[in-house]
TrEMBL record:
Gene: OSBPL11
Lineage, broadest ranks: Eukaryota, Metazoa, Chordata, Craniata, Vertebrata
Subunit annotation: Heterodimer with OSBPL9.
Domain PH: 50-147
Source organism superkingdom: Eukaryota
Record's keyword annotation contains Membrane: yes
Compositionally skewed regions (Polar residues) per UniProt: 401-416
UniProt protein name: Oxysterol-binding protein
Organism: Oncorhynchus tshawytscha
GO MF assignments: sterol binding
Length: 651
């Protein structure tokens, strides 16, 4: 089919469309003005059906070579944009290929000839046509092809989802015990869980591509350019939030503790009853994890990607024989590094000391290489302990006490002249699950107060836990406050042998001194890379100068590099661990962690999972009953050691 078309009375061109190939050719009519030369105007055949087109376009390569002519081919059937060095090399392998499914085609605002093709992989072709009409034709053809193949991707997902539903219905429709197969057959549970995880992953990938496409379309309309849009995974990748903060009732006021501080707690908790902790647990054998694999598979097959696990009852055998409140205490297992923060000779050194303490605290907080889940604390549950920190060899000047202890109460100094660091944690909320913990060393004029909301979500073959909240370290001797956030935690490979990984960015800031730090816990990439990597930078905000850099592994060796080129290595596995001091169960209150969970813990030690589950259910049901009663009587829950403090921010 050949016909002639005139545009704006300038140039007449003929367009030939081959019926067999759907190929479009444009050539100028003989004897017409402007019928020669690359810059002549062209007439184009516009339609909304897919066409295989080809022709020369200029492609931007780099700053050195700039723009170069290349021969481009739009392959509609395969959904590919291919290019060759020239038309003569077309029989050869393409120089480059860009898949168009999910791509974004964007005309440029720079001029009327340029446009970009942004593939879902992040690769981009920046192209330039001869004129505006030629650009419009390429853009419209590419957009039609892109839309077709993007919709085809969605249709494939729909078909896959239907097949997945058929599979699940077939498995669940099997008779319970008749025949060679049953719904609880381990291989079928593995198939069911794998199918669910695969569909969840594909759905999430498709959602990411759709978000990227929308973002790039917005940027093509003059909005800000978005280089990469992170997956819409749960909010577990972000620390902080609008949650009310919690501060101790013994919080700071005018440079000292309120009347009700931990010094008053010493009246309730007799320090003489505390003994060095003898509670040690060997790492669970891998066999125990494998034995319960069918239970995990059955649980995973019921979960959906991104599901909030806060209200999901997880199997008892994955518990690690300690409460979450006690786990927070175990992050203080290097109390000597904690109390040494205030010894820094200047604000820079104190910030570096805080970063060192922070980075070394996570290794001992984890018990063993296998990822286990601490008990979810019951609302009102508390945990108390202390540490005796040996004094350094040099004489220490006497510092004024935070407040004078009541007559007859124990002093803050230990029997052998050591410092005493006291700790209390309390579960202050059930929904959402919020914990508060506080530690102080009155003799060193320092304390730390933190609130954490643990928000867990299912991520396919992993479980992610966001530690949403904030902590504040107070150095009263220097009138400094260090605010800090917490990283996210992940339980990886939950179908085999689960292991723990930390990820996310942590911010540390001291407003008075003008020093800050950014700590980045790096998760392992899919291919290559090391486990448990962490980096940190300590910066002077006023000059933007980096005074110290840290790199290494949070459970291995850390290297500190300073401005003067000095370096220092810290091996966290060789740091001395100070055991906490805890009162025996029979001297603890009924809502203190170890006494509260003692029957569950003992049953797990005896590997009696059924009995442990029974005791755990009793505690959880009691909590639900009490919560219903408070709701019916409109009685608000009253915390014991912490109080809610609504944070107001100026607009």
């Amino acid at each position: 089919i050949t016909f002639t078309m005139t545009m704006q009375g300038e140039t007449a061109s003929a367009i030939r469309i081959s019926d067999s190939e759907g190929k479009l050719d444009v050539f100028p009519q003989k004897g017409m003005p402007g019928s020669s030369g690359r810059g002549s105007s062209k007439g184009w055949q516009y339609s909304d059906h897919m066409e295989n087109i080809d022709g020369c376009l200029m492609k931007y390569t780099n700053l050195v070579t700039g723009w170069q002519y290349r021969f481009f081919v739009l392959n509609n059937e395969a959904g590919l944009l291919e290019y060759f060095v020239n038309e003569q090399s077309r029989p050869q392998k393409p120089r480059g290929t860009l898949p168009l499914a999910g791509a974004v085609i964007s005309p440029s605002d720079e001029d009327s000839h340029t446009f970009t093709v942004n593939a879902i992989s992040g690769e981009q072709y920046k192209l330039r046509a001869t004129d505006a009409k030629e650009r419009q034709h390429w853009v419209s053809r590419l957009q039609i092809c892109t839309q077709h193949h993007t919709e085809a991707m969605g249709k494939m997902m729909t078909q896959a989802q239907a097949q997945h539903r058929d599979l699940i219905q077939t498995i669940e429709g099997l008779p319970p015990a008749a025949g060679p197969l049953s719904p609880l057959d381990q291989d079928l549970l593995m198939l069911k869980a794998t199918s669910m995880a695969t569909m969840n992953c594909l759905n999430d990938c498709l959602h990411i591509l759709q978000l990227q496409q929308v973002a790039r379309q917005k940027s093509s309309l003059g909005g800000p350019t978005i280089e990469w849009l992170e997956p819409k995974l749960p909010d577990i990748l972000k620390n902080g939030g609008p949650l009310d903060s919690f501060s101790t009732e013994g919080g700071l006021l005018e440079g000292g503790l309120l009347e009700r501080g931990l010094l008053e707690l010493s009246e309730e908790i007799d320090g003489e009853d505390e003994v060095e902790d003898a509670f040690t647990e060997k790492e669970e054998e891998l066999v125990a994890v494998e034995e319960e694999r069918s239970v995990v598979l059955h649980l995973l097959s019921q979960l959906k990607l991104g599901m909030d696990l806060t209200r999901v009852v997880l199997p008892t055998f994955i518990l690690e024989k300690r409460s979450l409140l006690e786990m927070y205490a175990d992050f203080m297992s290097h109390p000597d590094l904690f109390v040494a923060i205030t010894d820094g000779q200047g604000p820079e050194e104190r910030m570096v000391c805080f970063v060192e303490y922070y980075l070394t605290s996570f290794h001992e907080g984890r018990k063993g290489a296998i990822a286990k889940k601490p008990y979810n604390p019951i609302i009102g549950e508390s945990f108390h302990c202390s540490w005796k920190v040996p004094r350094s060899g040099e004489p220490t000047k006497d510092a004024p006490s935070l407040s004078s202890p009541p007559q007859g109460s124990p002093t803050t100094e230990g029997e052998n002249g050591s410092y005493q660091l006291r700790f209390v944690a309390e579960q202050v909320s059930h929904h959402p699950p919020v914990s508060g913990f506080y530690a102080e060393c009155p003799e060193r004029q320092m304390c730390v107060n933190t609130h954490v909301w643990t928000k867990s979500k299912f991520m396919g073959m992993s479980i992610g836990v966001s530690m949403i909240g904030e902590g504040c370290l107070y150095l009263l001797e220097h009138d400094e406050e260090y605010t800090f956030t917490l990283p996210c935690a992940y339980a990886r490979s939950i179908l085999t042998v689960p292991w723990v990984e930390l990820g996310g960015k942590v911010n540390v800031n001291c407003t008075k001194s003008g020093y800050s730090a950014v700590i980045t816990f790096q998760t392992k990439p899919f291919y290559g890379g090391k486990l448990h990597k962490v980096t940190a930078e300590v910066k002077h905000n006023a000059t933007n100068a980096v005074v110290c850099r840290v790199q290494g592994e949070w459970n291995g060796v850390l290297e500190f590099s300073y401005q003067n080129s000095d370096t220092r290595m810290v091996d966290v596995t060789k740091l001395p661990v100070t055991k906490k001091r805890v009162r025996p169960n029979d001297k603890q209150g009924p809502t203190e962690s170890r006494r509260l969970w003692q029957h569950v813990t003992e049953s797990l030690r005896q590997k009696d999972i059924e009995k442990a589950t029974e005791y755990k259910s009793i505690l959880e049901e009691r909590q639900r009953t009490e919560e219903r009663h408070r709701t019916e009587t409109e009685t608000p829950w009253r915390t014991r050691y912490f109080e809610s403090e609504v944070r107001r921010t100026s607009s």
